[in-house]
Amino acid sequence: MVQKLPFLKESPSQTAGPYVHIGTNPNWVEITGVWKEDLGLVLVGPETKGERIVIKGRVFDGAGDPLKDALLEIWQADAEGLYNSPQEKRGKADPNFVGWGRQPADGTTGEYRFETIKPGRVPYKDGRLMAPHITVWIVARGINTGLHTRLYFSDEEAANAECPVLARIAHKARVPTLIATRAEENGLPTYTFDIHIQGEKETVFFDI
Amino acid sequence: MSDQGSFYQRDRSWHPPAFTPSYKTSVLRSPQQPLLSLENTISELTGPVFGHDKLGPLDNDLLRNFAKTGDPIGQRIVVYGRVLDENARPVPGALLEFWQANAGGRYRHKKETYLAAIDPNFGGCGRAITDEEGRYWFRTIKPGAYPWPNGVNDWRPAHIHFSVFGHAFAQRLITQMYFEGDPMIWQDPIVATIPDKSAIEQLVAALDRQNTLPMDALAYKFDIVLRGRRSTMFENRMEGN
Ligand SMILES: [Fe+2]
């Protein structure tokens, strides 16, 4: 026998199931009066620094149908590229921007939508700057472990071209699955980011 | 030891794989390409913080937080435990959100169609933030088992869903808690997505007779383990070693 290592195992993941909203967005499923406002709906206030943007899209299954029960979370840096987190040691993030959001996909169309700001660039491990990006996490019935991906911006061509994370994608044809396309809608820059769980257009998901 | 190292790689053989045909919905909702391994960057090492001020006094009391005319029907229980990391250290300030069916196995959700009755006094959601020692607790009723459309006669064992935020987005986790001694655990296609029996057992809460509230509620202990980080001792190693 050898000495025992002191580590525990991570609790295994289980699907969020079809009723995840009861726990995360009870008001949205008409369980009212337990708490006033579901967490993560509003990211931006009048004091928040940075360019106002909308990100929206749908999550598609392998048959090309949108998931109407998906729940998405985003996590991003502020306009200067700082995270509002105690683990952020490089400086102090915008106190008026938490950087975390959560939205259910629409129960009829499957569309999700976040109103946020465009994040600044943050460094990779070796100090090179990554392109501006937003971490996206997707759970739903049928997804056994939450899926991590990243949203990049179509109008950041130069930064995307030198991003060390995008450079790690061996099949260059898959890079566009991470790039949200910009258009003006109702006077706001709106980025469409459709996520394909499987199939020809399968989004790149990360093991982080 | 500080919090600064990157996280231990997730043991994907301990978690359920994405493609698990006996849980039919996973078939079209599972990536087929390998996940791209990404060493943690600051984007994964950071995460949102939720202050205790975000919570109301009844958030961890499912007996009372939706009650209209009295207590919900069902076996009164207390669920408690700690959130730890893989280094067996407590994770303070972790936000836990939980949701469950009522005693008859019925969820309060507009898309739920099971014929068991809705309980007018039970919402089925709650949340808690761990204290300095990583501890949490809440009060609820024991959920019922329920049938679900997968096979023609598949039933979920009694369970409570948990969503957990640690200190970093890399630790984000959703899982489910089962109850000690429930024979339904071992015939459930969703439980069975986890390949390892001892991994399944990690999700089975222990009946704790010591902490039972006499003449009031049974107690179940459920510890949750989030990913742990490397110690910084090895972070400054010389290049090429
Ligand atoms: Fe459930």
UniProtKB/TrEMBL annotation, chain A:
InterPro entries: Intradiol_dOase_C (IPR000627), Intradiol_dOase_core (IPR015889), Intradiol_RC_Dioxygenase (IPR050770), Protocat_dOase_a (IPR012786). It is an enzyme of class 1 (oxidoreductase). The keyword Oxidoreductase applies. One of its GO terms (molecular function) is protocatechuate 3,4-dioxygenase activity. The keyword Ubl conjugation does not apply. Keywords: Dioxygenase, Oxidoreductase. Residues 55-83 form the Intradiol ring-cleavage dioxygenases domain. It comes from the Bacteria. Its EC number is 1.13.11.3. PANTHER family: DIOXYGENASE, PUTATIVE (AFU_ORTHOLOGUE AFUA_2G02910)-RELATED, PROTOCATECHUATE 3,4-DIOXYGENASE ALPHA CHAIN. Belongs to the intradiol ring-cleavage dioxygenase family. This is Protocatechuate 3,4-dioxygenase subunit alpha.
Automatic annotation (TrEMBL), chain B:
It comes from the Bacteria. Residues 8-41 form the Protocatechuate 3,4-dioxygenase beta subunit N-terminal domain. Its EC number is 1.13.11.3. GO terms for molecular function: protocatechuate 3,4-dioxygenase activity. Gene3D superfamilies: Aromatic compound dioxygenase. Keywords: Dioxygenase, Oxidoreductase. Residues 46-228 form the Intradiol ring-cleavage dioxygenases domain. Pfam families: Dioxygenase_C (PF00775), PCDO_beta_N (PF12391). InterPro entries: Intradiol_dOase_C, Intradiol_dOase_core, Intradiol_RC_Dioxygenase, PCDO_beta_N, Protocat_dOase_b. Belongs to the intradiol ring-cleavage dioxygenase family. This is Protocatechuate 3,4-dioxygenase subunit beta. The gene is pcaH.
